[in-house]
Amino acid sequence: MTAPVAPSLRSRAAEDLAARLARSAAATGAGHALRTADVDEWLAGRARAHRFRVERRPLGALDGWSFAEGTGNLVHHTGKFFSVEGLHVTLSEGSVRSWQQPIIRQPEVGILGILAKEFDGVLHFLMQAKMEPGNRNVLQLSPTVQATRSNYSTVHRGSRVKYLEYFAGADRALVHADVLQSEHGSWFYRKANRNMLVEAGPDAEVPLDDDFCWLTLGQLGELLRRDNLVNMDARTVIACFPPVHTSEGALLSDAELQSWFTVERSRHDVDMRRIPLNQVEGWQRGDDVVERPDGRYFRVVGVRVEAGNREVTGWDQPLFEPTGTGVTAFLYRRIGGAPHLLVNAKVEAGFLDTVELAPTVQANPGNWEHLPPADRPPFLDLALDAPADRVRYAAIHSEEGGRFLNAESRYLFIETDDSETPLDPPAGYQWATPGQLGALTAHGHYVNVQARTLLSCIDAGAVEL
Fold first, then answer.
1. Sorting pLDDT into bands at 50, 70 and 90, what band is 155?
2. Quick one: average pLDDT of 320-327?
3. Which of 289, 315, 89 is nearest to 189 (CA)?
4. 401 has a pLDDT exceeding 90
5. Closest of 315, 325, 403 to residue 55, by C-alpha
6. How many whole angstroms separate alpha carbon 405 and alpha carbon 401?
7. Which is nearest to 79 in space by CA: 104, 110, 106, 58?
8. Per residue in 144-161, is it b (16+ CB within 10 Å) or e — as a string?
9. 5, 241, 414, 460: least buried by Cβ within 10 Å?
10. Which CATH superfamily is domain 254-271+324-459 in?
11. What is the mean pLDDT of residues 38-42?
12. Of 244, 40, 54, the residue nearest 141 (C-alpha)
């Protein structure tokens, strides 16, 4: 009888991946087939190749959508995709402790995935020129695959999602990262997507579709310095790449930071209850929109979409439209020679687990103007009035264009000192190195999507602190 063959063991991590990512981050000017300076013209060419159109339509006239009898929830006739419902929120602390609002409920988990492949010894990443109806400039660079389960299971009866086979099924590519991450907790109810980085082998032939291009991590870093070019879904996946740079020392050990965050997560009492949309107080539904009479926060609007290169070339849908531009900033300082970011353990209405680590400032200033200064978010005025010589990074980035219309935030890294940000910060805030936050992105529901955008700028080399 033949003895059983002993299983071979693998390394627990790709030992050379950090070095390969660092080489890719250093390649900023050109990649395998496209110079960074030519990306604008390539995107313009893709825009010319297809018909794109977004028109507003009254919510009551959206094809396939209706307000459900009894609840007033805005739902799709298939019961798939997503719905707009109501949420009642009660908090144990804060200047505003109770409110009601519309919220997007999308329980299915989608895939946000970037495919990597090595060309001439340098890792490249397959990026898509993707139209989203909420993008102000229509086309932005997105992950290789950006699809809900309804999309990739063709509930819409459209064409298949390109390159999906590298991320799903038995024959998928080598996995470097695969983690469930939350999305905007203020507008989504407990929504999560798989954030994936996979690599095709050296002998794999990956056919290149016209709407896709290979870029290095360094090229993506250069493009992250530009407004509205690299979309939110690409940014969150980049933030989940295995860290390129790590520092040995930090103000708090990893265990101490974890303990602080666990205390923050435990001490908040948060009651979030779904309620019918037609029972949400402080909001009104007209023929065209759902909105607040005071015009704050956001409104729910409808659009008709035409997109020649999508799996379905035309559809109607609701979108959330914010009423102003957000400000999202990490204040940072060097402590013991190492850059540290001031993180906020932030409660958001739709989070699965109470709080996540957020940037120091994450707010729409217009939503707080009616409140006294003591009730405004800490450090907001500092971020708004930062001297130009202290701003190390600034760019306008779009939020999720598939669900939000013209939703933009000004993302910032601002250098501070002890007089502005003491070593012993206020309750709910703590110092962490970029490496510590980067390590936490390997786990779901620790680092929120806005913080991941700013981490992606560090990982891709768009900013040096």
1. very low
2. 96
3. 89
4. yes
5. 315
6. 6
7. 106
8. bbbbbbbbbeebbeeeeb
9. 5
10. EvaA sugar 2,3-dehydratase subunit (3.90.79.40)
11. 96
12. 40
Tell me the Cα Rg of the chain: 22
Which residues make Cβ contacts (< 8 Å) with residue 257, sequence separation at least 6? 250, 430, 432, 436
> Which of 163, 201, 202, 195 minimizes the C-alpha distance to 177?
195
CA distance 236 to 194: 10
pLDDT, tens digit (0-9, with 9 covering 90-100), for 284-300: 998 799 999 999 999 99
For the chain, domain boundaries? 254-271+324-459
> Among candidates 148, 163, 138, 160, which has minimal Cα distance to 214?
163
Cα distance between the two ends of the chain: 63
- Which among 378, 187, 355, 362 has a CA at the least distance from the CA of 268? 355
Confidence of residue 158 (pLDDT cuts 50, 70, 90): low
Q: What is the largest CA-CA distance in the chain?
A: 82
Token readout for 152 is 């990739």
Has this prediction a pTM greater than 0.90?
A: yes
* 139-142 and 361-363 strand pairing: unpaired
Q: Provide the token pair at 425.
A: 């910060």
Q: Which helix (H) or strand (E) holds 273?
A: strand 270-275
Mean confidence (pLDDT) of the chain? 92
Residue 60, exposed/middle/buried by CB under 10 A (0-12, 13-18, 19+)? middle
- pLDDT mean over 67-72: 95
Check residue 149 and give its pLDDT.
Answer: 67
Bridge partners (DSSP) listed for residue 332: 341, 415
The pLDDT assigned to 109 comes to 93
Contact yes or no for 396/409 (Cβ under 8 A): yes
Q: What is the SS3 assignment for 146-213?
A: EECHHHHCCCCCCCCCCCHHHCCCCCCCEEEEEEEEECCCCCEECCEEEEEEEECCCCCCCCCCCCEE
Q: Which residues contact 205 (CB under 8 A, 6 or more apart)?
A: none
Residue 85 confidence (pLDDT) above 60: yes
pLDDT digits (tens, 9 = 90+) for 234-249: 999 999 998 876 667 9
Q: Return the residue matching tokens 């007209």.
A: 286
- Parallel, antiparallel, or unpaired for β 98-105 and 110-119? unpaired
Residue 103 tokens, joined: 């919220």
Q: For residue 426, what are the CA distances in angstroms to 369, 383, 418, 448?
A: 22, 16, 13, 20
Contact 54, 305 (CB under 8 A): yes
Report how far residue 39's alpha carbon sits from residue 398's, in angstroms, rounded to the nearest whole number.
Answer: 18
Q: Which two tokens stand for residue 271?
A: 């009651």
The CA distances from residue 166 to 161, 169, 286, in Å, are 11, 8, 45
Give the whole-angstrom CA distance, residue 289 versus residue 72. 13
Copy the structure tokens of residue 264: 């923050």
Structure confidence at residue 11 as a pLDDT band (50, 70, 90): confident
